[in-house]
Amino acid sequence: MNYKKLGKILGKIMILEAILMLAPLAVALIYKESYRNIFAFLVPISALALIGFLLQIPKPKRNNLYQKEGFALTALVWVVMTLFGAIPFVINGDIPNYVDAWFEIMSGFTTTGSSIIVDITAVSHSTLFWRCFSHWIGGMGILVFVLIFIPESNEGSSMHLLRAESPGPQVGKIVSKMKVTTRILYLIYLGMTVLEVIILMLDQPIPGYENDQFFFSLLATFGCAGTGGFGFIPGSMELFHPFSQYVMAIFLILFGCNFSLYYLLLIGKLRQVLKSEELRSYFLIVCAAVAFVFISLVGKTEAFPQTYTTEESFRHALFQVVSLITTAGYTTTDYNVWPMLAKTTLVVVMFMGAMAGSTSGGMKVSRIVIAIKGAYINIRRLINPHYVPKAKFEGKSLEERTINDVFAFLTLYFFLFISAIFLLSFDPVNGETIQIVSDAGTYTAEHGFFSNFSAALSCISNVGPAFEAVGPYASFAGYSTFSKIILILTMMLGRLEILPVFILFSPKTWKRV
Question: What is the number of H-type helices and E-type strands within the chain?
Fold first, then answer.
């Protein structure tokens, strides 16, 4: 294990986090918050800068990283980032309990959006900004940005880090140099972010929040770009005007696409983009899911508590499907009380996620497509042992190893998902009921199997809000400390796609060779 090299990169990450924390510190100064709020960011900034500087001093004997080291470093970076990132919430008193604060910031950096905050109106502007800004940081991946600083001679090391952090079964360079690749990715990411903020600013301010239009546009965009979903006003996106809701829905779809496709668009290869099998599958799934939810809402029964117009039914169907398949988790209405067909559709898309190479979580559309084709091949082989597979994906023949890797990932995914549900069943909160107030009225929800099922699914797919007692108008605050730690680990496993976290906690990883 190349400890000195790992420490050097980790030190750069810590210095970078210190620099990024200057943004919420500036927000605290702009909004003239208390000295306690300012101090809350100065403490971790100083600690991160000092430790990061000290880690730069030792000189490693070799500059390259092996795959095992790259995977372990990736998971370690996310642990360190969140442990320090939680400190401001504790010092300023917005989230006094450290485990709760760690849950909140892990949910932010992993772009999950699950929250333990019950009253969002009592939270300071600097905390609101840091929560949402963490979505934007974690969306593209903090290590993707740091790869810019890794020497060109370490292309192999860079690729190991990129593979460890980037979502999806396949990842590679879009140009010959890794530095150039990362710059292109971040320029596209930044450009789309700025564009969404500008368009959202064209809408009318939210009534009662006229002075915060730019601030809220920025926070909403952070959530869309990172496909996170932390709410910053009551009701998540419910108070935003229809124009803004449609804008966010469109950008969520765009941020759910593989960013390599945008590079192809920029260099004029439109035909190659349109040939993308995953892109076509992604849009097909979105259209089908929106249709199912829309039909369900339009054909609602009298027992359904909400009354929507046809346009509202379509808008809510579009927004919620797009928000959950991209694992953003924003809401415009209380889908917790929707008809069963609509809720079932939303659960299905929570499993799927959007495209590989995007900022979304979930299993990814590419894996779903490959798994279906792999299952078809195996069925054909059972019928005819001499069958020669001819399956292709993205114009290339599907290799046996790729199919096996996908099946292995899905096996681990469901094993961890079921394990999380089982561990949550020990929580004393099970059986208790809570009162929920939403646009559907006031009703009670019980902490039970479906709450635990959807909470585990929400965290491993990095979605955010779930159903029942942890639905869009509730929070995860009711869970015990033990359950919150389980969900913290589940969020990290989901964001890093399992293997880097396993490698981090494997004793063999840290043996000297």
Answer: 22, 4
8 A C-beta contact, residue 167 and residue 361: yes
Rounded-to-integer distance, Cα 342 and Cα 325, Å: 13
The confidence score (pLDDT) of residue 425 equals 96
The two structure tokens encoding residue 251 = 């950008």
Neighbouring-strand partners of residue 335:
none
Residue by residue, DSSP assigns 211-279 as GGHHHHHHHHHHHHHTT----SSTTTTTTS-HHHHHHHHHHHHHHTS-HHHHHHHHTT-HHHHHT-HHH
Residue 51's nearest CA partner among 14, 103, 92 is 14
Q: Is 67 a residue whose pLDDT tops 60?
A: yes
Taking only the tens place, the pLDDT of each residue in 301-325 is 555 667 788 999 999 999 999 999 9
Q: Which residues lie across from 442 on neighbouring strands?
A: 437
Distance CA 145, CA 153 (A): 17
Mean pLDDT, rounded, for 203-225: 95
Asked if residues 466 and 377 have their Cβ atoms less than 8 Å apart, the reply is no
User: CA of 63: how far to CAs of 52, 280, 492, in Å?
Assistant: 18, 41, 27
Residue 476: burial class (beta carbons within 10 Å; 0-12, 13-18, 19+): buried
Q: Which two tokens stand for residue 34?
A: 């208390």
* Residues forming beta bridges with residue 37, ordered by sequence position: none
- Let me know: does 65 contact 72? Beta carbons within 8 Å: no
Q: Where are the domains of the chain?
A: 1-141
Q: Which of 348, 341, 308 is nearest to 324 (CA)?
A: 348
Q: Outline where 21-170 has alpha helix (H).
A: 22-30, 35-54, 67-85, 87-91, 98-109, 125-140, 142-146, 155-165
Torsions phi, psi of 444, nearest 5?
Answer: -110, 150
Q: Which residue, among 349, 363, 361, has the nearest Cα to 256 in the 3D structure?
A: 361
What the block records as the tokens of 362 is: 């979930």
Q: Which residues contact 431 (CB under 8 A, 6 or more apart)?
A: 446, 447, 448
The two three-digit tokens of residue 331, written as one number: 């809401």
Closest CA to 28 of 101, 91, 81, 118: 91
pLDDT tens sequence across 454-466: 999 999 999 988 9
pLDDT for 504: 66
pLDDT in tens, 170-190: 545 555 566 677 778 888 999
Q: Helix or strand or coil: residue 434?
A: strand
CA 81, 222, 85: angle at the middle one, nearest 5?
20
Distance CA 397, CA 390 (A): 7
Q: Fill in the amino acid letter for 391.
A: A
Whether the CB-CB separation of 78 and 462 falls below 8 Å is answered with no
